[in-house]
């Protein structure tokens, strides 16, 4: 699939809908690692176009710790509070530019 086509599809999938990297990799039939690489560019172009790129942070499924300060798109390795690694994937969503502002 062509690069721009792929990123456009990714933006369409995330349009007002939360998805994680696994969901995107299944929809687009690419590896999760590639999803993250493309997301960096998608975030940049969405912001440049006046839209919003929303990152719903990872959460520890064992103690409930939320990785609020984390800006990286990938899933963290382990929880700083309980030191375990049963973590929910971060979720992504795009709110397109409303045309105004
Ligand atoms: Zn934890």
What is the secondary structure topology, with strand pairs?
Blueprint: H1 3-14, E1 19-20, H2 21-28, H3 32-48, E2 52-56, E3 91-95
Antiparallel strand pairs: 1-3, 2-3
Bound molecules: zinc ion (ZN).
Zinc ion (ZN) binds next to loops.
Explain this structure.
- It is a single chain.
- The chain is of the alpha+beta class and about 100 residues long.
- The protein has a single domain, classed as Arc Repressor Mutant, subunit A (Orthogonal Bundle).
- Helices cover about 35% and strands about 10% of the residues.
- It has 3 helices and 3 strands; from the N terminus they run αβααββ.
- A 3-stranded antiparallel β-sheet has the order 1-3-2.
- α1 packs across α3 (about 30-50) and α2 packs across α3 (about 30-50).
- It is globular.
- The relative contact order is 0.21.
- The model has no long low-confidence stretch (mean pLDDT about 90).
- Zinc ion binds next to loops.
Distance between the termini: 34 Å
What is the strand content? Answer: 5-15%
What letter string, H or E per element, gives the SSE order? HEHHEE
CATH topology, what is it called? Arc Repressor Mutant, subunit A
Kindly name the structural category.
alpha+beta
Helix count, per DSSP?
3
Radius of gyration: 14 Å
Q: Bound compounds, please?
A: zinc ion
Detail the poorly predicted runs. none
Indicate the mean pLDDT.
Answer: 92
Q: Determine the oligomeric state from the structure.
A: single chain
* CATH first level: Mainly Alpha
Strand order of the largest sheet: 1-3-2
CATH architecture classification: Orthogonal Bundle
Described by the principal axes of the CA atoms, the overall outline is: globular
| Total count of domains | 1
**Main β-sheet, in a few words?**
3 strands, antiparallel
How much helix, percentage-wise, in residues?
A: 25-40%
Number of strands: 3
């Amino acid at each position: 699939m062509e690069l721009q086509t792929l990123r456009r599809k990714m933006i369409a999938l995330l349009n007002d809908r939360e998805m994680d990297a696994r969901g995107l990799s299944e929809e687009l039939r690419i590896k999760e690692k590639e999803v993250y690489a493309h997301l960096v560019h998608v975030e940049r172009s969405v912001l440049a176009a006046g839209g919003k790129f929303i990152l719903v942070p990872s959460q520890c499924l064992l103690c409930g710790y939320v990785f609020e300060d984390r800006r990286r798109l990938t899933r963290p390795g382990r929880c700083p509070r309980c030191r375990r690694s049963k973590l929910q994937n971060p979720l992504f969503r795009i709110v397109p530019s409303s045309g105004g502002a």
